[in-house]
Design a protein that fits this description.
Distance between the termini: 95 Å
Radius of gyration: 26 Å
Oligomer: single chain
Structural class: alpha/beta
Strand content: 15-25%
Number of strands: 28
Number of helices: 19
Helix content: 25-40%
Largest sheet: 8 strands, mixed
Shape: globular
Length: 665
Amino acid sequence: MTCVAKRFCSSLSMLTLFLSVSATLSVAQRTSFSAVHGSFTPTTDPVTGNFTSANMEIDVVLAPRNESALSDLLTDRYNPQSKNYQHWLAQGEFYTRFAPTRQQIKAVTDYLGKSGLQVEASSSPFLIRVSGPSSMVENIFRTNIRTYRNRKGIDYFSNDSEIQLPVSVASQVRGVIGLSNTVRFQSMRSRPMKQTAPPPTPSCETPYPTEEQLANAALGISGFAFGYGGGPGCNGLTPSQDNAIYGALNLGPLAKGTGVDLAVFELSAYQQSDIQTWAKFFYGASYKAPLDDITVDGGPLSPICPVGDTCPASFNGYSGDIEVDADIEMQLAISPNARRLLVYNAPNDFTGQTELDEYTKIANDDTADVVSSSWAVCENDAGAAYVQAENVIFEQMALQGQSVFGAAGDTGAFSCIRSDGTTLANVLDPPSQPWVTSVGGTSLETFNPNANPNPNYPNGVETVWNVLNLCNAGPGSDGLTGFDWCAAGGAGGGGNSQFWGRPAYQFGPGVNNPNTTFGNGTTQCSLAAKGKPCREVPDVSINADANTPYAEYCTGNSNTPFSVCGEFSQFQTPAGWFGIGGTSLSSPFWSAIIANHDSLYHTRIGNANPLLYLLFNIDANGYFHDITGKGQTVNNNGLFPTTPGYDLSTGIGTPKMGAVITLIP
């Protein structure tokens, strides 16, 4: 009897298990799954293995509710003919109107939670943060996570196919962040190549360097004597020169940022004492820079890194102090009377999650009137999920009246060269975002104002930034290829977005051009309808050439780990002072110009692009210097030519500051 009962019980257990498995399989078979568009970026990099992690945190990106209403509201608030023109949303109102509904959030969290992932708090209602072992993540999203090695020998992981979710869930999801760790933000700054001090003559300035001088410096053979502008030791342009060259009017404190809150997006610690030294030199001993440090996720000195993500010490600490100091000093050069300069700072991670948290914080605080970021990643490394998550944040800022500027890049049309070694035409994110003003780079070339504090604009001299036209897609004759020069010598970024369609505000002479691309669903503005023209960048430009630099002060010591400035600045003459370039300087320059407009009229201009393109179409010559390339040797950014009107090298041109600042809103 006992034996029979045991066999019966065993058979019953087997039957129960069989029925349970069958039921589960039946449900799975009945469930329809859908691929999330754009959730996979193909690569030719070799696979080096399978990625495994005992635990990893990922962010699931949700779509806003009422997306058509969101689009209509943006159009309405930026239409000068609308009665609601520049009537900005109050703090918190964006979430009230457009955050995903409880039902949307519940549908996704229920699926993920029941699948075994732990649901955690996130920085935004548009992000659901979950965690679990990589094997579970792979099963739930129906993809494999592999490890790869790029052309520069850098290892990374990424999913090898589009993620899949049940149809009812997939309709709420824009993508997943954290399945790839290629979202590695880099700064867009450029120092002159290896130099020696200029000769001690009365002026101490030197001519623009030759190709031989630059090649010898790039190859480590020898440096060259260099001096430019009126900064200490002829180390770059002074604030007075910055304003004079681009025609700022002397309208007093009201047109110098009074009452405005500036902000910079940063991923590195810095020393406030550096900023105060710079500011007191140019503005006097009684001046104090209005700095306000705001850390996110612990900041770069005490990173709180998402589990499974990486925040290497060498990418944090003071590793980008040269960038932070440059951004702050450039804004203060143009807007010294700002009420506050908010320095937002998060850890520099490899999945981009901490950067999203920082932008979310800037938007939710809604304190900054203008925001500049000189940190970016090439679109190809960012991915569609990531740029869509950012886009919602920038739409929020636009509706709150916050102006956001980004550096278009320092490697010409080839924005991935420094990160992964690829030479495909690519632009940077977030400057390519529709609600960010992308700022490209020009050069003042042969014009050197020496110590003249009030130089005039050098008509006919300013060119696109592409040192001696050396950045290009062809072979070199000096031991370096054209691509080598793009990465080393620098050139202004520009081109077509692989994600975004052309915004309605982007129109005018030259916007339609032989290099315009159109949506094809994959590599060209893939988030837009097929056949739609793609978003083009830059929007505007300003001097960014490291050989026509701005004066920076930055130091480092044993208490500033991984400091870039600590590697060289003590050897400068005078110590701590040097010239700096890159579109890292162009972005805060332009943001400060708009801040001065805001201060003059006690209002927020909001996203600058709709107004700038309107001015371009109404009276381009009245507000901008058109960089045409006519009669100039330097006439492209490595791929795209400078032309009359808009072009993919310099956008609509460089500013006539007096006209832009005094424009009646």
